Amino acid sequence: MSNSTQETPAQRLAALGLVLPAAAAPVANYLPYMRTGNLLFVSGQLPIGANGIDAAHKGKLGAGVSLEDGQAAARQAALNVLAQANAAAGDLAMLKAVRIGGYVNSAPDFAQLPQVVNGASDLFAAVLGENGKHARFAVGVAQLPLDAAVELEGLFEILA
Fold this sequence. Notes:
The protein has a five-stranded mixed sheet with strand order 1-2-9-7-8. A hairpin with a 2-residue loop joins β3 and β4. The two termini are 27 Å apart. Helices cover 29% and strands 29% of the residues. It contains three helices and nine strands.
């Protein structure tokens, strides 16, 4: 990339060889995102791609899922968070990441939770530039929907 500070998020996505997926419809009684004032809350997103959840993105970190596959799952979930945020804001350039939350389906003794969620944090920074830097949390959980390895939620500011 030449000068990433002048590139748009759409140009950065293209340079990474990524395509923003369509925002998924909710599968239960909740909204995929909620806007209040200039804050945008994105509901938890799984690492679902065009063909569902890749087998490498299912299961527990530290018990069959590698760190690298967990990071890839976090990256896919982050793309889905961005898709929801884009649907709400109309343009990724209007977004500033405030906080992301990462839930990692993990074995009890798996301690690399932050490294897994780095897959998402790195993608937000790569796509949104300075506006992609954020606060975050990474926690291990006993199970996630569809046996996903990772689930991400996001909080964004919509810039005027």
